[in-house]
UniProtKB/TrEMBL annotation:
Source taxonomy: Eukaryota, Fungi, Dikarya, Ascomycota, Pezizomycotina
Tree of life domain: Eukaryota
Species of origin: Aspergillus novofumigatus (strain IBT 16806)
Domain PDZ as annotated: residue spans: 152-209
Annotated region (Disordered), positions in chain: 1-25
Keywords from the named record: Chaperone, Proteasome
Any one GO BP annotation for this protein: proteasome regulatory particle assembly
GO cellular component terms, semicolon-separated: cytoplasm; nucleus; proteasome complex
Name of the protein: Probable 26S proteasome regulatory subunit p27
Length: 242
């Protein structure tokens, strides 16, 4: 909810002019680690800018004029327009970063498959496997695809999440097609849930074998979002980003 327009002295603000620190033009020269960091930076700024709009009680589509075409005097129209323009710009940058990130992942796994095929054919005798544009801070396969990005904070008994087998403390590696690369601060998880009401979503989790144990078990659960289970929401669980 937005705060009252006559009491917004603590509302977040954004610069009125162009901001620095935009996406580097030649993304193809960035390592996967650099691309990940750029993705996180953009998403953090988008989240902050969304908070600015919310503080004014508007969104990207709210009209900034009165019914007879004059600028509204109950909101800071200039700041909102600047914020919206920056959001549009950042969304474009985010798409570019994600495109290069996904391309890098495809190239990385293609190189791994070629290397594995060569080993199977006896053409390689070592463990050296070419890494695709990962740089010195190389990421393993599990880190790239299966890094947990959210934790189950609580599960309501009898809920769809409970029936699927989710437990508090589980960490989520993938939620349908959503993973740590594309979850966008869990917004994609919410979108997946909304789009799959009544349909099965495969959720891959990591669960500790005991409170004092460092051993974990990987599980693949089938979750069906639905409204008629007697509680709030479609899942009946609370997720927090890691």
């Amino acid at each position: 909810m937005g705060i009252p327009m006559n009491d917004n002295i603590h509302a977040p603000t954004v610069p009125s002019g162009p901001t620095s620190g935009g996406v580097p033009r030649d993304l193809s020269k960035l390592t996967m680690v650099d691309l990940m960091q750029e993705k996180e930076r953009i998403e953090a700024e988008l989240s902050a800018l969304s908070a600015v709009l919310t503080s004014h009680g508007v969104n990207m589509n709210t009209s900034l004029t009165t019914f007879d075409g004059f600028p509204r005097d109950d909101i800071d129209v200039a700041q909102i327009r600047t914020t919206r323009a920056r959001i549009i710009h950042l969304r474009t940058d985010h798409k570019e970063v994600m495109k290069h990130l996904e391309k890098g992942l495809h190239e990385h796994f293609a190189s791994l498959q070629r290397a594995q095929a060569a080993v199977a054919a006896g053409g390689m005798n070592g463990t050296a496997v070419q890494r695709s544009n990962l740089g010195e801070s190389s990421l393993s396969d599990a880190e790239i695809i299966g890094t947990p990005f959210a934790k189950v904070n609580s599960v309501v008994p009898g809920s769809p999440a409970d029936q699927a087998g989710l437990k508090a403390g589980d960490t989520i590696r993938s939620f349908g097609n959503v993973n740590w690369i594309n979850h966008e601060r869990l917004s994609k998880v919410a979108q997946t849930v909304q789009q799959n009401e009544g349909r099965t979503i495969v959720v891959k989790i990591v669960r500790k074998d005991g409170p004092a144990s460092n051993d974990t078990t990987e599980l693949s659960l089938e979750l069906i979002p639905r409204r008629d289970w007697g509680g709030r929401g479609l899942l009946g669980c609370h997720l927090v980003p890691l």
